[in-house]
Amino acid sequence: MATIDGRPAQYGISLKQLRELMEHRGREGIARISEFGGVQELCKKLYTSPNEGLSGSRTDSEHRRETFGSNTIPPKPPKTFLQLVWEALQDVTLIILEVAALVSLGLSFYQPADEDLPAAIADEEDHHGWIEGLAILISVIVVVLVTAFNDYSKERQFRGLQSRIEGEHKFSVIRGGEVHQISVGDIVVGDICQIKYGDLLPADGVLIQSNDLKVDESSLTGESDHVKKGENYDPMVLSGTHVMEGSGKMLVTAVGVNSQAGIIFTLLGAAVDQQEAEIRKMKKEAKKQRKKKSLTGDDGAAPAGGAITSNSHISSPMPVKEDVEAGGDSTNNHVQTTSPTEGGGGGGGHKKEKSVLQAKLTKLAIQIGYAGSTIAVLTVIILVLQFCINTFVIQEKPWKNTYANNLVKHLIIGVTVLVVAVPEGLPLAVTLSLAYSVKKMMKDNNLVRHLDACETMGNATAICSDKTGTLTTNRMTVVQSYICEKLCKVIPKFNDIPSHVGNMIIQGIAVNSAYTSRLLPPTNPGELATQVGNKTECALLGFVQGLGMKYQTIRDDITEETFTRVYTFNSVRKSMSTVIPRPGGGFRLYTKGASEIVLKKCSFIYGHDGVLEKFTRDMQERLLHQVIEPMACDGLRTISIAYRDFVPGKAAINEVHVDQEPNWEDEENIVNNLTCLCVVGIEDPVRPEVPDAIKKCQKAGITVRMVTGDNINTARSIATKCGILKPTDDFLILEGKEFNRRIRDSNGDVQQHLLDKVWPKLRVLARSSPTDKYTLVKGIIDSKVSENREVVAVTGDGTNDGPALKKADVGFAMGIAGTDVAKEASDIILTDDNFSSIVKAVMWGRNVYDSIAKFLQFQLTVNVVAVIVAFIGACAVQDSPLKAVQMLWVNLIMDTLASLALATELPTPDLLLRKPYGRTKPLISRTMMKNILGQAIYQLTIIFALLFVGDKLLDIESGRGQELGAGPTQHFTVIFNSFVMMTLFNEFNARKIHGQRNVFEGIFTNPIFYVIWIGTTISQVVIIQYGKMAFSTKGLTLEQWLWCLFFGVGTLLWGQLVTTVPTRKLPKLLSWGRGHPEEYTEAINLGEERFDSIDSDKKPRAGQILWIRGLTRLQTQLRVIRAFRSTLEDLEERRSVHSLHSLRSSRSPTGILHQQPTGAHLMVPLSASHRLQSVNGATTPADIIYIDEEPKVPSNNNSRGGFNEDLPKPVTETRI
Fold first, then answer.
1. How far apart are CA 145 and CA 89, in angstroms?
2. In its UniProt record, which GO terms are filed under biological process (predicted)?
């Protein structure tokens, strides 16, 4: 018989049996497990031990992977380079150019019998006519390749980022009797996993042992109540669900595509492919219907059982094209995508708005597109009219076929004007700048999960920070203790404590902490022990070691399996209790927790020499004032340890007599009348770099607030040490209770006007619940008190911080101490849990904004000049001084290369010296507009001077009024060259947007900038001297080159002059892109809708929308941003299987997922770009719509779980 690692190779249970087993719940599940002989027997069949786990050897793991599959869900393959090229070619402007170039090529070879032309000229034209067409084709190909390459490298980068984020997700498993943290992908069937509060389960499993376990299964079932799990009533735990309370151990039974989440993914994948086919079919149908113009009401309705349209991005890393919202309005079995801004009204609305910058850019791009296209059309009309009037009216020549060539040339000039006018470098600049920043931010310990968070952070005006671990080091140590009426400022000796009290303290700490918390001996002698698990518990275990005792020996005697009951720590209890059997019969309960809470439940205390005393109200007050408050004022966190005995025989004064097992569900009475053993003060020192970081934030105009669960005195002490509180300031410090009293009306509802009185001065919120944090964040965001709406960043690490992290404009989760739930809800993960990394994020965010502003300042100058020159040239000289190929070259340097050069500037500390821009600040400030117009005036003056008198000045033949097909002239070459030189030197001016004088400052910190600049200059020399017909240039003499350089350098000197003009005197009208993002919704909708649903009333809009879309190349921008998002979302999907169907989705005959009529809901995020939410009451503010596919089943998922009584209910919408 074949063996693996000394065990049989054949398992006692098959993959199919395990898959079937995991489909059962509750009692059914227990029955199925007992058919296999119980959990212990299952372990034997899988050759694993509940206590020792797997051996962890390579051969064993490999064999398990081969047999039961690996714990990964294969992603969709990334787009190939060719696909991206094809996408880049879809651009309307490029298509027009390609067609025009091909026509021009064709016509150049078409030689009609034309008697008038002398043979020599005809030959000449044959020679060179085709060059221009070819040159345009080549430049189009270059643009396409550059775009595709950018998309390609970006996608590669984000796949890398994605695997990095996935790699960050580790899980505790027991292998060879030791607890190891391993990557989620390495988990195999048969592993024994330790699960605890805040975990996102990576695989399906069966519980072996559990304490007070509650799981949020809404991501799979849509049921927002937390489900109680236990080995005796519901032992099945599923991948993709969140542990909301408690802890336990599970045996892994299914991984990857065989887990419940994986099965749904494979179903969804099939459904999406099916559905895409359906949509295509539907579109064709709809077109036919429209042609028939039939008047019946429900034409074009989707086939019943309609596909889950437009949430198809759930399972595909690449977004399905936005136009999937076709049809089906009459039957409503289609989920319509809401454009990101339409959904913006609801509870968590603002998350769905575009980021501030994106909104401003979209509006700007549309405005420029309108202007550019108008001018382009005018140019073509004027050129054609002039040509026709001149040829046919004045000279009265008959039509010849060769004239078609002239008309095509005019069209090409017009299209080129359009290409130059539309800033297609904009999306590229945004993308590059964001991608570059994200890459660099990883080095600064910021792992960005949602791209726009990076830029939003630059506008942040408020940061609500946790205390523990963010402002403090999260390395906790016990520094004071109060035992038997002795207050010690150092750790006492064990012999000084009465032995019966000492032994109970040691046992109480060892048993009543999670067994996952432990101290590992230091790697190097002389260092501190490594703390693993909950840091507060580690501090207590350290106290046990400091007393010279060993906690592990006690844990070995009393294993977790022997526990009678565990009341795990949560934000409501603020304490943890464990019940263990007593050796002589009966039970003992140990409790530890926040001292003011535990002491309220104590009726006895050990006094001097370990004598038991009644714990009276007076003693409580005295203990509070003399011990606990002084500890708290030193910034210590105080923890009390207490116990209670339940005995079968005669009970002492502090014991309870029991005949049978007490009712453990009655927590109120069980955890009461305790006997206090000791109070300890735990120090968590402030991180040394935090006070400085907070000072920087305050200088940068950002208010830092501390929100903590700690005692108000501890909080005040730490806040003062950090510099959040300054003695001179006017500030508020509130406890959660007082905060709620001030902001709620008589009915207990939160009122915005009451909140507005509190938050501006509030600096510390102590003893706060997660709900308080959420209320505060929401209140600040929704407030209209300050003229600019506040932009709020929040840090969090606990499961219960989820709602606040989601609601915030930017949510920071802790990479080390943070739970999986917090990381899921966040936008940025701080890999070192350090507050000073947030300051770096602010700096990078502001830098992104500035980089894009620099690019705009540069880009718009070129746009204005090129468009005006082409237009006026066309009107005055019947020919654009800048030829199509030349304009494409300018377009390439000013768009693609300049965006690279300007988007990669490094941030400087000066960025932190100005106030945040806020939401309403115009994108192009008056200073920038002054620079743009100033430079444009200079460049236009030079170019028109050269155009009309340049030939006389430089003593060269004029290029004006040349015959079509005549060779290039030096005159027009000088104009082209001067234009490029001025543009190149203006790139230096563009590096500063706040009116600084020294434009060369820090130039050598950015090698990309100077390499590109030098490269462009060299290429320009080559083009001028050797471009000949292809670029319509003629070689220049040295003198002419010096003139061009002189004009170029002039822009730098002129720039200094422009800077001298006082900005304040300029009219406000000169700033562009201002107003609230809300006002941009119209502009954005134009950009987003693309295709209205068939049969909608907005028919005329659709044409107009398409027209704008084609012109502004917004597709690029949206596609780029989406490609980013979707690659990141793809990873999120695989980690949290959210927005999925009810578990036992039956496949309908068409292969589309059908709904169980149990009221389980299909969840669809409101917009394709909207991140996947975890859909349960507890971790989602109301920004998800549940849509019932079974209209007859009224949806009832307002049931809310646990602590979130004050959270908004999820919006439910039953469409009937």
1. 9
2. regulation of cytosolic calcium ion concentration
